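Final report, closing paragraph on structural work. Over the funding period we assembled a curated collection of sequence-structure pairs, and we close with a single example.
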Amino acid sequence: MCDVYSTRVHEVLIAAIKNADMQEARAMFDDADYCARKLLDALAGTGRLLSVIGDNNALGPNELRSLGDSIAVTAELVAGFSEVVEAYNWRCRTGGIREDGQHA
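Its predicted structure, as stored:
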C-alpha cells in the first residue's frame, strides 16, 4: 500500500503476527481487521469534512500540516493492520495455522 513509512509500527506488527501462537495470531487478525476498517472510515470522513471546510478556508497552514501528519500516520496504521491480516491469511494458506484457528 505504502512504501515510505515514518514509523516502525508496521514492522513491529508484522514481526508479532509472524511469531504469534495460534490464539495470539487470531486475536491480532481480529483486532487488525477491526482497526483497519474503523481507521478507513475515519479517513473517509476526514476527507469529506476537509472538502467542506476547504471551501471556506477555515484551517490555517499549521492546522493543515498537523492534519496532514495525522492522516499520514493513520494511513501507516491502516497499512500495518492490513499487512497483519495478509500475514495471518498467508499462515492459514501455507499450513502454519488451520482455518479453524489451530496450529497445523
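The two ends are 30 Å apart (CA to CA). Residues 22-54 form the longest helix (33 residues). We thank the funder for supporting this effort.
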